[in-house]
Amino acid sequence: MATTVPLGYQNNTSSSPDWLNKGDNAWQMISATLVGLQSMPGLVILYGSIVKKKWAVNSAFMALYAFAAVILCWVTWAYKMSFGDQLLPFWGKAGPALGQKFLIEQAALPETTHHYHNGTEETAMATPLYPMATMVWFQCVFAAITLILLAGSLLGRMNIKAWMMFVPLWLTFSYTVGAFSLWGGGFLFHWGVMDYSGGYVIHLSSGIAGFTAAYWVGPRSTLDRERFPPNNVLLMLAGAGLLWMGWAGFNGGDPYSANIDSSMAVLNTNICAATSLLVWTWLDVIFFGKPSVIGAVQGMITGLVCITPGAGLVQGWAAIIMGILSGSVPWFTMMIVHKKWTLIQKIDDTLGVFHTHAVAGLLGGTLTGIFAEPELCALFLPVTNSRGGVYGGSGGVQVLKQIAGGGFIIGWNVVVTSIICVLISFVIPLRMSEEQLKIGDDAVHGEEAYALWGDGEKYDSTKHDPYSDDTTHPKVSSGATQVV
């Protein structure tokens, strides 16, 4: 009986066909694992620790559920909507990415050219030299972390069943559009908008969508908004550490190769994050009189977000400048503008995702348009002669392209997120009941993060009351509490 041999395996009994670059494949799988660890357990730990203790289980579970749900949706239809054949200039055709034969064939084909007519110029898509299964998983963990970051705006009051509906809908109708437009061969990709590793696709979209969804879901209870101390600051730092170290895969994996660009991206990522953390801390000391651990985490996050759209496209000196600005501009919007702008105050963005991701992401995208170095751009970008504004030539136009690209992501997310929330509200309430808001995890999940007292121990309301941290906890800092 005849046997069909997948392309790439003819006359080759090895599991490593000639086209496979083992080094690139290994780095890509490591990068995907690092990004996955940012979410599970990184953000699961961070969210479960940074909220009031009555919301620890619910917050961690929102992240855990999103991570699992995205994986199944991604391989079933969403990957090809983001990186498949074009359906519209901003959207790909849905389809599964499950079959091994399909994946091998795609990787074994010669380099594919996507035609974009700019005079006589054509824009080529990169063809990684490893199985497409690697690419599917690498991009999957990016999609998952976007939903989890978005969840940070909704902690402490969103109906968990509404969240379970929201995740696949937003992934399908919002995330895939940004991913295809900027990365998958869509119109922003061909136009030359720079988004090296997701400053727009991931951070700007999650920040804007989270802020929009927070408007539709409504605020936390008055008591929670007034007093929302983290239940475990040290565990919060463990989650933040996983996030920081995992960013080596987040930015280092996006050239799809273990090359010069990936090395620059990892170094720049850490330079910008460290600078931003220090600047945010100094501003806290100058204006509030003491350094805040939560503030340091905020500064770390904004630095990581800001460098993301240009990590492999800028020089180290530019990464320092970007770190200075990412440690100060989002600090200003969160600590000054937020407190004076009534509209922003009315929307309860639990962890300040608008400031740490939307503001920092748009800032990073704009600064990339200013500082992108021509030789590094040539290693990564589809449009020839791309450069930042400081390098002259067409650099000034690049800044305008970056702003326009950010505008598209903002507009799409405001509209689509609003439609999704309104549609879900017809089926199930977006917000928890008042009883659930009062009780927290025990009412929502029947579980609590910590035992309030042990067997044989006499109940003492001053120590064991689950709401004692609302007004009487002597150790809670009076400084800013919005985070990541």
From TrEMBL:
Its main location: membrane. InterPro entries: Ammonium/urea_transptr (IPR029020), Ammonium_transpt (IPR001905), Ammonium_transpt_CS (IPR018047), NH4_transpt_AmtB-like_dom (IPR024041). It is a multi-pass membrane protein. It is found in: Cell membrane. Residues 26-450 form the Ammonium transporter AmtB-like domain. The keyword RNA-binding does not apply. Residues 474-484 have a biased composition (Polar residues). Keywords: Ammonia transport, Membrane, Transmembrane, Transmembrane helix, Transport. PROSITE patterns: AMMONIUM_TRANSP (PS01219). One of its GO terms (molecular function) is ammonium channel activity. The chain crosses the membrane at residues 26-48, 60-79, 135-155, 167-188, 200-218, 230-250, 262-281, 293-311, 317-337, 358-383, 403-428. Residues 463-473 have a biased composition (Basic and acidic residues). GO terms for cellular component: plasma membrane. Residues 463-484 are annotated as: Disordered. Belongs to the ammonia transporter channel (TC 1.A.11.2) family. This is Ammonium transporter. It comes from Escallonia rubra.
